[in-house]
Design goal:
Layout (H helix, E strand, L loop, with lengths): L6 E10 L3 E6 L2 E6 L6 E10 L2 E11 L25 H18 L6 E6 L10 E8 L5 E6 L7 E2 L9 H17 L13 E8 L5 E8 L8 H8 L6 E9 L11 E7 L2 E6 L2 E6 L8 H15 L3 E7 L5 H6 L3 E8 L2 H13 L5 E5 L2 H7 L6 E4 L8 H9 L4 E6 L2 H13 L2 E9 L9 E8 L1
Parallel strand pairs: 3-5, 6-21, 11-12, 16-17, 16-19, 17-18, 19-20
Antiparallel strand pairs: 1-2, 1-4, 2-3, 4-5, 7-8, 7-10, 8-9, 10-11, 12-13, 14-15, 20-22, 21-22
Helix pairs in contact: 1-9, 7-8
This protein binds S-adenosylmethionine (SAM).
Length: 450
């Protein structure tokens, strides 16, 4: 009988978003975390609430016929990727099938599905990595990514396929330096120790690199030799800045109590679709630069030419607003993070765009203050989607067309359902794979008044 704690053997028959297998035991549907269709597994039921049953894999008894050898020694233990053991074509097929199923389940139909755009780079595509200092289990200082489902242990990333060689060269130099200097890592339980994170950003389009070391202030560090070691590395890109950020906060997030510029400048630039974007250590930017070009070009194509007023809601650093700007009379961006709006304004100035206006605030409240009537609304909300009240306000203002850029197809399906019930219809949908080897996928929908 299926109950909490019971152990079963089953075959996974489907993979649903984000990376959940589906298996049936005694007719009961079970969601198997991290399961892949075709795997024969031994599972333990971790949750049972009515018909909702979840399980975790104890052993993989037989691999899925979809699987291949993963090109990374840390695959399986490192939390960095999920589908490195699945051929890329199959990953794309799984992702587009999952998005279509979510839309179909929400009753969204009758649109033109334009398939899934592969990432231009399948390996080494990330332009930012946040590495954590810690211990890999035996007390040795390690610098890497969190192990899967582990809060404290860190996996090395020697075989990482998500970044290029420059990331690993910089990481190895930093690790070697601190191992030799015997500086302790910060323990998240005791809050004692010094080394917390290393954030490396490398602009995918220009090769410019920004290195940011994050430590506590519990020990005064002399970092001149580390800077020299980094500047002597032979890299494909070029280091433009090295920063030292102090973070004495207790939460495991990167916040800055103080930022010291150790060398160079505090920003790098990306060149996307003919525009320049200045990126600082803490600004948001899409993590796959070449994939972002594909995504933005798709949004631009869906938006169309000769636009009047365009709203770019949840605009972040205003990238989409600026890319749309030449084909619009006026673009108004709204974003809740003041620093992102500051970056958006600076970048618009750098790009000599004078028809973009950026507003700091919550979309929910700022929509009330706009007197303009938009021809087109672009929406790129966070994973949770659009706040239901904000969506109702938007619907009440009756824009003729919307372009919805979604990083979470579950919330896209939910919001599209509301829009469909309110007189809109999805006309075109296309997925863009910005995150190979992970379960994530971007989906862009053109939505028109029916
Ligand atoms: C997926 S990102 C959009 C990125 C943006 N298109 C870009 O390329 O920079 C979602 C953005 O929504 C912002 N956000 C989240 N909740 C918000 C809200 N209630 N009102 C306005 N912006 C919000 C986040 O800070 C984040 O920058």
């Amino acid at each position: 009988m299926v109950k909490k704690g019971s152990i079963h053997t089953a075959t996974i028959t489907d993979t649903v978003f984000p990376n959940k297998g589906v298996a049936y035991v005694d007719g009961q549907r079970i969601i198997v975390h991290d399961g892949l269709e075709g795997q024969r597994v031994r599972i333990k039921v971790t949750k049972k609430r009515g018909e909702k049953v979840e399980a975790r894999i104890l052993d993989i008894l037989e691999k899925s016929p979809l699987e291949k050898e993963a090109a990374c020694a840390q695959f399986g233990t490192c939390g960095g990727c999920t589908y490195l053991n699945v051929p890329y074509e199959t990953q794309l097929e799984i992702k587009s099938r999952q998005v279509l199923k979510l839309l179909a389940d929400a009753g969204i139909q009758g649109f033109d599905f334009l398939g899934i755009q592969p990432s231009p780079n399948i390996t080494g595509y990330r332009n930012k990595m946040e590495y954590t200092f810690g211990d890999s289990g035996d007390g040795t200082l390690t610098l890497g990514l969190h192990k899967k489902r582990m809060r404290y242990e860190v996996s090395p990333v020697t075989g990482c396929q998500l970044v290029d060689e420059d990331f690993l060269s910089i990481l190895n130099a930093v690790l070697a330096y601190f191992r030799a200097a015997k500086v302790p890592f910060y323990h998240k339980k005791s809050h004692q120790g010094v080394l917390r994170h290393l954030v490396i950003r490398k602009a995918g389009t220009t090769g410019e690199i920004l290195v940011n070391l994050i430590t506590t202030s519990q020990q005064k560090l002399e970092l001149g030799e580390l800077v020299d070691a980094l500047l002597q590395l032979t890299l494909a890109g070029s280091i433009k800045g090295i920063l030292h950020t102090i973070n004495d906060g207790r939460a495991d997030t990167i916040q800055a109590d103080a930022v010291h510029l150790l060398w160079g400048k505090d920003c790098i630039t990306e060149a996307i679709l003919g525009l320049t974007f200045r990126i600082t250590a803490f600004s948001f930017f899409q993590t796959n630069s070449h994939g972002a070009q594909e995504l933005f070009a798709l949004v631009r194509g869906f938006a169309g030419e000769n636009l009047g007023v365009v709203f770019d809601l949840y605009c972040g650093t205003g990238t989409i607003a600026q890319i749309i700007s030449p084909q619009a009379e006026k673009v108004i961006g709204i974003e809740i993070v003041p620093e992102a709006i500051e970056a958006a304004r600076q970048n618009a100035k750098l790009n000599r765009l004078d028809n973009c206006r950026f507003i700091v605030g919550d979309v929910l409240t700022e929509l009330d203050n706009l007197i303009e009537q938009p021809d087109l609304v672009i929406l790129d909300p966070p994973r949770s989607g659009i706040h239901p009240k904000a969506l109702q306000k938007l619907i009440a203002s009756a824009p003729p067309r919307l372009v919805y850029v979604s990083c979470q197809p579950v919330s896209l399906a939910r919001d599209l359902q509301v829009l469909t019930e309110s007189g809109y219809r999805a006309v075109k949908v296309k997925c863009v794979d910005m995150f190979p080897h992970t379960p994530h996928v971007e989906t862009v929908a053109l939505i028109c008044k029916a």
